[in-house]
Structure formats: C-alpha cells, structure tokens
C-alpha cells in the first residue's frame, strides 16, 4: 500500500469531491514513474501515449515496480512529481491514467489536469494583521482539521507549530487564519504556497482562510496542530537490542 492507496478507502471515481481533492493534492506531491517510448536521451523524453476512447492518456504509477507489473516486463520510464507531469501533459492536451489495477487507480482527462495545474499555480496573498482573533467555527474545524493536520505534519522540521483561528465577526468568525510558528523567513514563501495549494483542494470556507507567520501564542480557543513525532510505547522501546558497551 502506498500513500495514495491509503487515501483511497473509496475508489477515486466513487469518492465525494472532498476525498477526490485530497487524493489529487497527494498526487501532486508524489513521485510518479511515467512510461516512455524509449530510454531518455539526455534531458529529452517522449511520453508513451495511449489512445483511449475518452482521449489520449499517459500512464504512470507511484512506483517503478507497479509500472513494470502493468506491462509484465521492465519498461522505460521517467520519475517526476505529479505536479510536473500534470504540467507536461497539459501542454500535450493529454490525460493521465494512474496506478491501474490498484486501490488508488484514477483516470484524469485533459480538462481535469488543466484544472489541477491551475490550482497548483495559485499563489497565496499576504495576510494582513488581524487583531480580533477567536476560536474557529466548528464547521470549519470539521472540514479542515484532518487534511490540514496531514499536510502540516509533512512540514515537520520546516515549521515549529501551527494553529487555526477565527477572525471575529458579527455572530461568529467572518474568516479564518492559519497561524504558522517557528519557520525561517527564507522558507516562508514556499511554506505559504504549499499551504495555499492544500487549502485550494479543500472545501471553501466563508471569508476564506489566510496564512500568517507569527511566533506569538495563538488566541484562546484556537485549534492547535500537533506536529511532534509520537513517542513509541515503552513496551515497543524494550524490543530494541541493547547497546554494547
């Protein structure tokens, strides 16, 4: 099972829009092995395109072994992140078949890849300072907490902490703010772009969700995300062999 398979409790084309968006977001960050017509020549590659009824598609898997398994023999391939492959196929006007025969199988037509590359090119706007921060709306927590937590854990080492707060409005939050702590200034534009991408795949929230970098304590009631690695139970730690002195 791969990271994409783990998200495919329901097959991609039977999943709801939120689940499909999470799978596409993970696909963008996954290194894919895409079939070629022959071995690469320097930095030049030619994608192997298959003429399906719905239009031409390339074939890629999240592992070269899966790609070879589909063809029943080794095959020339190139490895690249899903976001890069989507951009190449957008230029070709072709779609993409991913992981055929596996839980995370998905067939993305040219229109879907065009949408995906558009989302991935989104750049975050700088968040203005908001003074009246409060607890996030329960509906926003329900919609965003789990997928945001998964994306933030991927950034462990780049950020020291994160919290989701509401921006006080009449009768409740009018918008939300994702507060990021413990990041280096030089890394912040890339972190903001990655989080903006993640939010683009999630259900839109009233007033939107801005991203802000601050080492100040989150406001009372903010949703704090746990980024630390869980400590192994004591019983499991005993299974490690003793050190020789």
Give a short overview.
The chain is an alpha+beta fold. It has eight helices and eleven strands.
Question: In words, what does this structure look like?
Answer:
Helix 4 (82-92) packs across helix 5. The protein folds into two domains: 3-120, 3-Layer(aba) Sandwich (Trna Endonuclease, Chain: A, domain 1); 133-225. The chain has helices at 3-6, 17-29, 64-71, 82-92, 110-120, 138-154, 188-200, 234-237, and strands spanning 31-35, 49-52, 55-61, 77-81, 95-98, 106-108, 133-134, 161-169, 172-181, 209-213, 223-225. The chain contains eight helices and eleven strands. 30% of the residues are buried. The strands form two sheets. Strands 1, 2, 3, 4, 5 and 6 form a six-stranded mixed sheet that branches. Strands 7, 8, 9, 10 and 11 form a five-stranded mixed sheet that branches. It is an alpha+beta fold. A hairpin with a 7-residue loop joins strand 5 (95-98) and strand 6 (106-108).
